[in-house]
Amino acid sequence: MSLWVIRIFFLGLCTMGGFAVSQVRPEWLEAGKLWTLIGIGFGGVLIALDEMLKGFSLRAFSAATFGLLLGALVAAMFDHSGIFLWVDKDDEVTRGVVRMGLFIAFGYIGMIMAMRSNKEDFSLIIPYVRFTRENKPDNLLLLDTSVIIDGRIADLIDARFLEGVIVVPSFVLQELQLIADSAEPMRRARGRRGLDMLARLRRNKANEVKIHDAEVEEKDTDTKLIRLARTLNATLYTNDHNLGKVAELQSVKYVNLNELAAALKPVILPGETFPLKIIREGKDRGQGVGYLSDGTLVVVNNAQKFLGQQIEVQVISLLQSSTGTMVFADPKVTPGSTAGLLT
Questions:
Q1: 157 within 8 A of 207, measured Cβ to Cβ
Q2: Domains of the chain by start residue, with CATH
Q3: Using CA atoms, how far apart are residues 254 and 235, in angstroms rounded to an integer?
């Protein structure tokens, strides 16, 4: 149900409540319209207050209430401390103004200090006592469209490298459905792969998958994801470099699987040997080219004659470029023999 439907319903109740008040006493009957307008105004003020407190969390409300009570206690101590003996006891107006100033000032200071503090600061008020949650919050993994289509997130979850509740927003699911229904074959295949990955994630019993149906006011999908990640205190998983940087600027936790894969690439040093299948010829004469499992290009000297075969190669040098690392190697096959060939 839309939030504005509830607000309109509440405004209607306030309107009827204002009219009902006018029926309580006979002398109020003539002011029925006025009481109805008062009911509408009361409901409007509460709805406006609700809109202003949209980003106000329950923790902030609890901290503000605690700070207000603490400030009122301090104000009461000052009021009864005898500091204001200069105020005439018979002067109720001056006395009331002083007390109101005390409670407003200390209440405001207490609320601000409580809202700016963290939970560790409360141990100063109650020494040696620490409050811990019995029910710890779930670790929420918020997935965007790119990381679902990619599919590596499902491998990480199946291997139990990631634990927590998987959250898929409804607008991401709608985007996947639109991609799967696309007229373009490649785009349609990507969308269907994403839906298959979601089905695979749901089959995994170790991690719960939740479709988040809450409405997010922003129109752009990236902005919606960042807003939802902040609201849920979730970690955003994506392959979009730009989305990750925007999330970082807005202090939202995120993980870029491409960056994770780059960090987990095996380190290859000169002198190391490993098996490699020569799949095509190189640019220079006699060279053969193969690829590692992570896509790293390996150029093997004097390996053209081993085209289509898997051989043992030894690294001689590395070349770092903007597109990645290129490995240069020599075959460990003795000329004129089959030693070093792998079947």
A1: yes
A2: 3-125 (no CATH), 140-263 (3.40.50.1010), 273-342 (2.40.50)
A3: 5
CA distances from 222 to 175, 191, 212, 217, 250 (A): 12, 18, 16, 12, 12
Whether pTM > 0.85 for this model: the answer is no
* Among candidate residues 39, 31, 273, 234, the one with its CA nearest the CA of residue 138: 234
Q: Is the dihedral of CA 25, 26, 27, 31 positive or negative?
A: positive
Residue 192 C-beta-side C-alpha neighbours within 13 Å: 9
DSSP for 274-331 reads EEEE--EE-SSTT-EEEE-TT--EEEETT-GGGTT-EEEEEEEEEEEETTEEEEEEEE
**CA-CA distance, 200 to 253, in Å (whole number)?**
25
Q: Facing residues of 143 across strands?
A: 237
Cα–Cα distance measured from residue 194 to residue 239, given in angstroms and rounded to the nearest whole number: 14
- How far apart CA 256 and CA 240 sit, in angstroms, is 7
For the ranges 5-14, 136-145, 164-173, the one whose mean pLDDT is highest: 164-173
**Is the CA virtual torsion 53, 58, 60, 65 positive or negative?**
positive
- Given a cut of 90, is residue 63 above it in pLDDT? no
**Tokens 């979850």 map to which residue?**
157
**In the prediction, which pLDDT does 84 show?**
62
Find the length of the chain: 343
The 10 Å Cβ neighbour count of residue 88 is 9
Instruction: Please return the burial class of 256, using the count of CB atoms within 10 Å of its CB with bins 0-12, 13-18 and 19+.
Output: buried
**Using an 8 Å Cβ cutoff, are 257 and 150 in contact?**
yes
Rg (CA), the chain: 34
